[in-house]
Design brief:
It contains five helices and five strands, in the order βαβαβαβαβα. It is an alpha/beta fold. The protein has a single domain, classed as Alpha/beta knot. The radius of gyration is 15 Å and the shape is globular.
Length: about 150
């Protein structure tokens, strides 16, 4: 399976990078994972315009055949087991390319949400997009461990 994280913003702080790198390393035996970062825009004066520009940039990173999961506050909340089952269903159904999209400070542009095949909420609380990336990678790793009945999740 090929997984992609399409995210607004670079991870500048070493602790975010270290956490993501750790989960990317742990995911290697299970899937090919790539991270596509697009520049974040200043939302101070014109948040809708900044979000639209970020959205257009994000859409360029997503292959046409990819199944797209938008991380959105209004999306469905699932358990770790539920995410694992969803990924397993996608694989069995022949979907071998999945992109998780993480927006910037203003969220995801409507164009990105329209492109999404599903919307997923990590929490009803708002998370910084850097932390969301760590959480997504950790949950993807956990999902594969659950699929294989390996002990990490227990």
């Amino acid at each position: 399976m090929k997984l992609r994280i399409a995210a607004v913003g670079r991870l500048k702080e070493p602790h975010w990078r270290a956490a993501c790198d750790e989960y990317l390393k742990r995911l290697r035996p299970y899937a090919t994972v790539e991270v596509a970062e697009v520049a974040d825009r200043d939302i101070t004066y014109d948040a809708p315009r900044a979000m639209a520009t970020e959205g257009a940039d994000l859409l360029k990173t997503i292959p046409e055949a990819s199944y797209v999961v938008a991380l959105d506050l209004g999306g469905d909340q699932v358990t770790s087991e539920g995410l694992s089952a969803r990924l397993a269903d996608l694989m069995v159904g022949g979907r071998s390319d999945v992109t998780f999209v993480i927006g910037g400070s203003a969220g995801l542009a409507p164009a990105v949400l329209r492109r999404a095949d599903e919307r997923l909420s990590l929490s009803r609380m708002t998370l910084p997009h850097q932390l969301a990336r760590v959480v997504v990678l950790e949950q993807l790793y956990r999902s594969f461990r659950i699929m294989r009945n390996e002990p990490y999740h227990l």
